[in-house]
Write a structure and sequence with these properties.
The longest helix has 36 residues. The chain folds into 3 domains: 117 residues, no CATH class; 247 residues, Type I PLP-dependent aspartate aminotransferase-like (Major domain) (Aspartate Aminotransferase, domain 2), CATH 3.40.640.10; 123 residues, Alpha-Beta Complex (Aspartate Aminotransferase, domain 1). It starts with a helix and ends with a helix. The strands form 2 sheets. A 7-stranded mixed β-sheet has the order 2-8-7-6-5-3-4, sandwiched between helices. Helix 7 packs antiparallel against helix 15, helix 9 packs across helix 11 and helix 16 crosses helix 17. It contains 17 helices and 12 strands. Strand 5, helix 13 and strand 6 form a beta-alpha-beta unit. 43% of the residues lie in helices and 11% in strands. Bound molecules: pyridoxal-5'-phosphate (PLP). The site of pyridoxal-5'-phosphate (PLP) has 13 residues, from helix 9. Pyridoxal-5'-phosphate (PLP) binds next to helix 9. This is DgyrCDS12146. Pfam families: Pyridoxal_deC.
Length: 548
């Protein structure tokens, strides 16, 4: 049924729907009785026209209600499978782009929420229509973000998660998932290289929040009184991170009342790596000005350039001055699973805390992000309030499994099941080969860009999956590399990207950095991508670039 028909639903059907809702919600009548009351209405149960959600489980528990429910779910699954099939079909567009005003027009009344219920045929059509305008982030030519791809096991794991629909705050209501969280976090800590059986951690809603946990724990270690007394009892705390670090570090300084001016940006070298000597210098300056340095965050795979800070050298400086050492490898953490590439994170085992997003490099569906700590107990001490309606201290089981009081949330989504299921399906070696393959593709892309004319690298030797480059159109190639050329170059990537989005064939990000004009930030993290897709992207940039 189309939207038009949906809105023109026969008056009698509307009345019937409203009737079903009202009587059923009072629990007065069975479906049969309703049918009698409504007279000769003969719906076709193989279709969902004129069928309302009140006629599914849990309202209608009859055989018929059960059958309808399973038919309805299978219809939804069909819609999803169709989307997945299209996402993997290179002849399908990555997106069907509309400007906000025209999308509003296209969907128009379809988005309205009204007093009367819609039938399930409409609901199915709503699902289809929604997916039609979604960006196919699992498409092999979607390169726009650090989290791309659609892993079948992770996705079905998320379906199970939705069906189990529980909250992670206590063992009481999430017994299996709590144990899985312990297993997975322990495994991640072992991979980091911390002593077996030690340490702590929790899944957080994204790397930005995982980083917040790290700063919070670090502040608790230096100044635990803040928990009760607030920042007025704190000295002027100073934290450090590189100028290329993720913006969440600085924002966390704002959130925690430390202040963004007390989050010092450390200089980076030509590759974008934090310069340890500048860190040392900045620590001295902070101390001399009466501040108390307490935290440094090194980045393992910067968001833009994919650079790895020298963790060992930064640890040396941090520990000399008694700072908490955090490694934000939200993006690069997965590299630890590769024997060949874990060296990028050499020294990580010396850190006090680590942010690691399985929803990026490892390809877990959104969202899945861990904060891992070397010391056990600090999260609990820092965050727990022992709300006595949830975390009763006299429960009949081992309450150390009530992990929720370590969190800064109350309810917590189950982010672990899909990751656990992926790990079962891939094993360590599956993740390793996935990551090694992505690295091969990155090397392939770099080779192609070197061979072709008009491409210039932002950093000469990218060490990871981010390959940042400029495309210089033919008519600009004779120009000297000066600020005049930069002004023109700055406009190239946004224009090509806009044309790309209108055509819908592929998607790649662009951005400026410091004084550098806009460049393409190509990220390879999509397991669906093959070398031909990389060729396609470069060809597309060349083709569109010449249209400028
Ligand atoms: C992506 C990223 C984050 C933020 O993670 P979210 O899950 O998007 O909150 C933090 N740090 C780095 C280095 C990142 O790349």
């Amino acid at each position: 049924m189309s939207y038009e028909l949906g809105t023109l639903m026969h008056q009698r059907d509307r009345k019937r729907a409203a009737y079903l809702f009202r009587t059923k919600s009072l629990g007065k009548n069975s479906i049969q009785e309703n049918e009698e009351l409504l007279g000769s209405f003969e719906p076709d149960w193989s279709k969902f026209e004129n069928v309302f959600m009140e006629e599914l489980l849990p309202k209608d528990i009859s055989k018929q209600g059960q059958k309808r429910t399973s038919q309805f779910i299978l219809e939804v699954v069909d819609i999803l499978i169709d989307y997945i099939r299209k996402s993997n079909d290179r002849s399908t567009k990555v997106l069907d782009f509309h400007h906000p005003h025209s999308l509003k027009e296209a969907l128009g009344h379809c988005l309205n929420l009204d007093e009367d219920p819609r039938d399930l045929e409409q609901i199915l059509s709503d699902c289809k229509e929604t997916l039609k305008y979604c960006v196919k982030t699992g498409h092999p030519r979607f390169f726009n973000q650090l989290s791309t791809g659609l892993d079948m096991i992770a996705m079905t794991g998320e379906w199970l998660t939705a069906t189990a629909n529980t909250n992670m705050f206590t063992y009481e209501i999430a017994p299996v998932f709590t144990l899985m969280e312990e297993i997975v976090l322990t495994k991640m800590r072992e991979i980091i290289g911390w002593q077996e059986g030690k340490g702590d951690g929790i899944f957080a809603p994204g790397g930005a929040i995982a980083n917040l946990y790290a700063v919070l724990a670090a502040r608790y270690r230096i100044c635990p009184e803040v928990k009760e007394e607030g920042m007025r009892v704190s000295p002027r705390l100073i934290m450090f991170t590189s100028e290329h670090s993720h913006f969440s570090i600085k924002r966390n300084a704002a959130i925690l009342g430390i202040g963004t001016n007390n989050c010092i940006a450390i200089k980076t070298d030509a590759q974008g790596k934090m310069i340890p000597e500048d860190l040392e210098k900045q620590i001295e300056i902070a101390k001399a000005s009466g501040g108390v340095p307490f935290f440094v965050s090194a980045t393992g795979g910067t968001t833009v350039l994919g650079t790895f800070d020298p963790i060992n050298e930064i640890c040396d400086v941090a520990f000399k001055h008694g700072l908490w050492m955090h490694v934000d490898c939200a993006w690069g953490g997965g590299a630890l699973l590769s024997k060949q590439y874990k060296k990028l994170l050499n020294g990580i085992e010396r850190a006090d805390s680590v942010t690691w997003n399985p929803h990026k490099l490892m390809g877990a569906t959104l969202q899945c992000s861990g904060i891992l700590l070397k010391e056990k107990g600090i999260l609990e001490n820092c965050n727990s309030l022992r709300a006595n309606y949830l975390f009763q201290q006299d429960k009949h089981y081992d309450i150390s499994y009530d992990t929720g009081d370590k969190a800064i949330q109350c309810g917590r989504h189950n982010d672990v099941f899909k990751l656990w299921l992926m790990w079962r399906a891939k094993g360590d070696i599956g993740f390793e080969s996935q990551i090694d393959r992505l690295m091969d593709l990155s090397i392939y892309l770099q080779g192609q860009l070197r061979e072709r004319e008009g491409f210039e690298f932002v950093i000469e030797e990218p060490e990871f999956l981010n390959v940042s480059f400029w495309y210089v159109p033919k008519n600009m190639r004779h120009m000297p590399k000066d600020s005049q050329r930069d002004v023109l170059l700055d406009k190239v990537a946004p224009k090509i990207k806009a044309m790309m989005m209108e055509r819908g064939t592929t998607m790649v990000g662009y951005q400026p950095l410091g004084d550098l004009p806009n460049f393409f930030r190509m990220v390879i993290s999509n397991p669906a991508t093959i070398p031909g897709d990389i060729d396609f992207l470069i060809d597309e940039i060349e083709r569109l670039g010449e249209e400028l």
